[in-house]
Inverse folding.
């Protein structure tokens, strides 16, 4: 008959105060090397741990600044539980130049990051990476696999301290396939500097893999998910293997959304202030899309000091849609001025990107010193063809009866970067690097206005960036200091190949600083204060001067746009204990030359829009993350934030300000029979921009769900998850938006039909492998807005 075995006790210091966060390792004698169980003491110093079988055991308790404490005990069928009582730890002794090697606690903190020791957790033997992420402070995993850091899905993912495109673009699928036994540590880099990313990324999730592992065959994972809102299964696969000194992995996934899965209905009412004319619009829309991604990673370790790696990945997306549109313009007496109907059909609109990166890393004999040389090529393209036909026309203000539009845009970027890291003396490290980017945006447009004329454009925009950065870090006891500076020289050149506009070029010179200070009050409390600046350059969608016209107005890009400069100041306070943890963030940001949309009213109540560096933006942010764990099987997490935005266009004396709140909550409970249940709910309020306000109607801003999961077979190789999305809410999501700061009033309503559904996901892990593709620091360019890069 199966029987439960366990051990418990309480660890205290010399003052009888509970020793929290002490690491417990339990060995079954005579083995004193490999623990059979690991635990962390609670806030009051207590601990309790289940053990696999009867026998003689040795418990080892370690804590920072304390001498190790050891106890032996025996479990039998008659005595299945052992109570070790009170265990008093003593202060450790510092022995001058003698180096004492000790086992680390599961949770660690550094000046800019929080870490979780996955290798020391016995659960890692039978878990996937996405399951271990749920144990990491500041990280959450939604039922559909979406990973969030501090409640946000906007963050970068590194592997072994370097940017990894495969992880960043496909973490939701890939992390379900990677066994946690291959991971050494998971880090949340909360305050990255210039050495992580020169363009000012706010948060990084760093996956640190085990080193020098031995290959044992081929392994991988295959998965399949089915959603009632999509009706077509979505497969994914991941495979890894090794041949001598070469290690490689491959992955792929595919998704499809048929037209019956997402349908929309929109209405808009406008009243023009000067003429008192008013218009009404109705749109019925449906569409379908398919997407997928593939990737390949490769590493070759020439010797212990030299490593060559390569990574290639791609993504494709194809969609088509159909919409029926009804428009009527009336005067103040409700007499029709003009009206028409139209039908818009798009051929498959295609988008794809391909990335390739090669790296060479050289380590010197000096510990911690390394040199990295990287080349990256990145490119994407999109194309779309659409036909629009007008019918039931009454007194139309234009002479054409429809349009045929053929647009295409391509982006190609080459990047070369060199980095050098050198420890100077104890606690001091300097990073220096240089980077060159050649970025070519090219757009073509062929617009035929039936019965009128044809307009063609061929626009090319080339940006070259030469940059250098330095990052210096110092640790002095409980205080950490960091400062970084980046200089960028940019040259922008625009060419109009059809001669319809005059070519031009311009040059920009920017200094991008960042600095930070941290103070670890004690083992549980820490504070950080930082300043950073960043640059975002306009992309092809903002720059393209092609004039697009409709009966209601016209729109075009602005090739004279310059880069936007953003500044931010951030404060962080963190508290972590065994039962309750919290992380508070507050920040202030501003920009004096933000790219904003400019709208004007043309004769005949027609609208014109373009872009300009005319905005002044200010924002105030507050965020609170909390987690409560009353026991090992129960967890409650709350993440809430509120943001105050103020946007202005001083040249037109326009402005808007307002608060935008949101909250996310999740409750997890481990049930008998290895079942796990999760309940979650989120709410987001209205948001404002310079010209519009967007808000949900009724319960559409409240989203919730329930999921149930279980693992089967030996080593939990088969994983099944059942999710119910928004079971008690409306199946139709409804939203309202209205225009502000424009010479007319406008209110729109939108409704979608995909707000409720059931999803089942199945994954199977096969093979046995103990290796990981090695990586050196890759390159991330994150300085573009407006559709120029993926």
């Amino acid at each position: 008959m199966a029987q439960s075995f366990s051990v418990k006790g309480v660890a205290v210091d010399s003052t009888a105060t509970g020793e929290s966060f002490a690491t417990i390792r339990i060995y079954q004698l005579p083995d004193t090397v490999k623990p059979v169980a690991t635990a962390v003491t609670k806030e009051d110093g207590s601990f309790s741990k289940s053990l696999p079988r009867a026998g003689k055991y040795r418990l080892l308790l370690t804590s920072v600044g304390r001498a190790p404490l050891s106890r032996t005990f025996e479990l039998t069928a008659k005595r299945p539980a052992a109570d070790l009582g009170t265990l008093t730890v003593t202060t450790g002794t510092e022995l001058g130049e003698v180096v004492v090697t000790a086992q680390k606690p599961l949770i660690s903190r550094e000046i800019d990051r929080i870490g979780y020791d996955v290798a020391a957790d016995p659960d890692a033997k039978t878990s996937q990476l996405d399951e271990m992420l749920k144990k990491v402070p500041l990280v959450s995993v939604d039922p559909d696999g979406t990973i969030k850091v501090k409640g946000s899905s906007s963050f970068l993912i590194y592997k072994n301290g370097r940017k990894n495109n495969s992880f960043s673009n496909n973490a939701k699928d890939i992390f379900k396939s990677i066994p946690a036994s291959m991971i050494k540590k998971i880090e949340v880099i909360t305050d990255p500097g210039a050495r992580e990313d020169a363009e000012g990324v706010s948060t990084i999730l760093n996956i640190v893999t085990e080193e020098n592992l031995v290959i044992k065959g081929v392994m991988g994972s295959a998965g399949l998910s089915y959603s009632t809102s999509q009706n077509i299964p979505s497969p994914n696969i991941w495979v890894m293997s090794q041949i001598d000194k070469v290690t490689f992995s491959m992955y792929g996934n595919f998704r499809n959304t048929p037209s019956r899965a997402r349908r929309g209905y929109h209405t808009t009412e406008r009243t023009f202030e000067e003429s008192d004319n008013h218009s009404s619009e109705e749109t019925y829309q449906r569409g379908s899309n398919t997407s997928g991604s593939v990737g390949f990673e490769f590493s070759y370790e020439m010797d212990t000091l030299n490593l060559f790696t390569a990574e290639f990945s791609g993504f494709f997306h194809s969609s088509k849609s159909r919409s029926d549109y009804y428009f009527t313009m009336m005067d103040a007496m409700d007499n029709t001025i003009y009206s028409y109907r139209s039908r818009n059909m798009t051929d498959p609109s295609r988008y794809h990107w391909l990335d390739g990166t090669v790296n060479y890393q050289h380590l010197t004999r000096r510990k911690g010193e390394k040199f990295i040389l990287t080349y990256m090529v990145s490119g994407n393209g999109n194309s779309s063809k659409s036909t629009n036909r007008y019918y039931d026309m009454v007194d139309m203000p234009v002479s054409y009866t429809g349009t045929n539009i053929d647009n295409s845009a391509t982006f190609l970027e080459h990047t070369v970067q060199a980095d050098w890291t050198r420890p100077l003396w104890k606690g001091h490290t300097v990073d220096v690097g240089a980077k060159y980017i050649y970025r070519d945006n090219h757009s073509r447009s062929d617009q035929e206005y039936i019965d009128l004329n044809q307009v063609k454009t061929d626009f090319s925009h080339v940006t070259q960036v030469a940059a250098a950065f330095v990052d210096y870090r110092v640790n002095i006891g409980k205080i950490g200091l960091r400062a970084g500076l980046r200089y960028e020289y940019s040259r922008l050149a625009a060419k109009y190949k059809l001669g319809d506009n005059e070519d031009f070029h311009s040059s920009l010179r920017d200094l991008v600083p960042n600095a930070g200070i941290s103070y670890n009050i004690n083992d549980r409390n820490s504070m950080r204060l930082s300043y950073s600046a960043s640059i975002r350059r306009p992309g092809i969608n903002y720059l393209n001067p092609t004039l697009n016209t409709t009966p209601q107005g016209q729109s075009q890009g602005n090739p004279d746009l310059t880069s936007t400069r953003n500044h931010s100041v951030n404060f962080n306070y963190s508290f972590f204990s065994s039962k309750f943890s919290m992380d508070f963030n507050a920040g202030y940001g501003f920009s004096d030359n933000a790219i904003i949309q400019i709208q004007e009213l043309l004769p005949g109540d027609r609208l014109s829009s373009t872009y300009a560096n005319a905005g002044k933006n200010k924002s105030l942010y507050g965020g609170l993350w909390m987690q409560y764990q009353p026991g090992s099987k129960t967890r409650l997490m709350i993440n809430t934030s509120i943001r105050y935005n103020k946007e202005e266009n001083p040249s037109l004396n326009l402005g808007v300000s307002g608060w935008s709140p949101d909250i996310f909550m999740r409750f997890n409970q481990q049930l008998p029979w290895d079942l796990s249940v999760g309940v979650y709910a989120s709410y987001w309020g209205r948001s404002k921009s310079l010209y519009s306000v967007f808000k949900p109607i009724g319960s559409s801003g409240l989203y919730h769900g329930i999921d149930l999961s279980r693992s089967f077979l030996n080593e939990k190789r088969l994983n099944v998850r059942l999710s119910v999305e928004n079971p008690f809410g409306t199946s139709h999501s409804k939203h309202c938006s209205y225009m502000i700061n424009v010479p007319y009033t406008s209110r729109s309503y939108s409704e979608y039909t995909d707000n409720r559904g059931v999803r089942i996901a199945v994954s199977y892990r096969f093979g046995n492998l103990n290796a990981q593709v090695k990586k050196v620091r890759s390159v991330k360019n994150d300085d573009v807005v407006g559709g120029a890069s993926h």
User: Anything to note?
Assistant: Confidence is low (pLDDT under 50) at residues 94-104, 769-775, 784-790. The first strand starts at residue 5 and ends at 12. Helices lie at 129-133, 165-174, 540-543.
